[in-house]
Amino acid sequence: MANALPPNLLEEAIDGKGRGGGRMILVEDSVETTGAFVLHHLVKRALPPNSSDVVIFLSFAYPFSHYDRVLRKMGCNLSVQRDNKRLLFFDMLKLEQLDRDRGKTIDDILISLYGEVQKAVEVCLSHDAKCYITLVVDDVSLMEVDAKGSSNLVLDFLHYCYSLTSQYGSSLITLSHEDVYSTMDKPNLLRQLEYLADVVIKVEPLGTGLANDVHGQVYCGQT
Questions:
Q1: Which CB contacts under 8 angstroms, 24+ apart, belong to 97-104?
Q2: pLDDT confidence of 20, banded at 50, 70, 90?
Q3: Residue 142 CB partners (closer than 8 Å, separation 6+)
Q4: What strand order describes the sheet that includes 133-138?
Q5: 66 by DSSP, 3-state: which?
Q6: CB neighbours of 48 closer than 8 A, spacing ≥ 6?
């Protein structure tokens, strides 16, 4: 089933790329075969026990309760991690609505969000210069929808995030739905993400269709 990774598959794909998965990991999935389980695995991996490592999570997809419930089943309590300041969770489902109620544009919202992310990174490192930071964006496709289809705004934001994580030796993890563009050539946004990524993990349906016990296949590759 597409809900667990084979032993060491991810570790082999990111070999030599750093503790948090390298400079950037791109997870590509489809509506039919979700890659959410890969994202959950990466978040758990970025929060090892007895460390000061931090995850900054930007969620355009689900509220905190969703991830907390899923990760708890995997043995990772996000509520505890949040209380211990090891998880900084930005619920964009709430924040965007609040900002729009204040008359802000999506451009204003993304600029403000990047400022908050940059501040969070700097504060974490000021408290512990050795902590490793992983920035997670779930997901880019919904972020583009929120931006009213403006891939340029989304790409600018992600470029800033990429530069920020590169500057501080941290990691950036993004999830995007590849098949939302299936009726057109691969868009510039997805091409740019693949170009930036050190590792691309693709979750795809089986070529022969769905089966009772296997719902998809995972490809991992370094770029």
A1: none
A2: very low
A3: 60, 61
A4: 87-91, 54-59, 133-138, 171-177, 24-29, 199-204, 217-222
A5: helix
A6: none
Least Cα distance to 86 among 113, 57, 118 occurs for 57
Rounded to 10°, the helix 188-196/151-167 angle is 10
- State the pLDDT at residue 69: 97
DSSP string covering 92-118? HHHHHHHHHHTT--HHHHHHHHHHHHH
Q: What percentage of the chain exceeds 90 in pLDDT?
A: 50
Closest Cα partner for 159 from 169, 176, 174? 174
pLDDT band with cut points at 50, 70 and 90 for residue 34: confident
Instruction: Tell me the pTM.
Output: 0.87
Structure tokens given for 202: 């693709």
Tens of pLDDT, residues 60-110: 999 999 999 999 999 999 999 999 999 999 999 887 666 666 778 888 889
Q: Within 13 A of 152's CA, how many CA atoms are on the CB side?
A: 1
Tracing tokens 């919904």 back to the chain, one arrives at 142
Burial string for 185-221 (b: 16+ CB within 10 Å, else e) reads eeeebbebbbebbbbbbbbbbeeeeeeeeebbebebe
CA angle, 100 then 101 then 106, to 5°: 5
Distance CA 171, CA 47 (A): 13
* Side chain identity, residue 134: T
Q: CA torsion angle for 164, 170, 176, 178 (degrees, to 10)?
A: 100
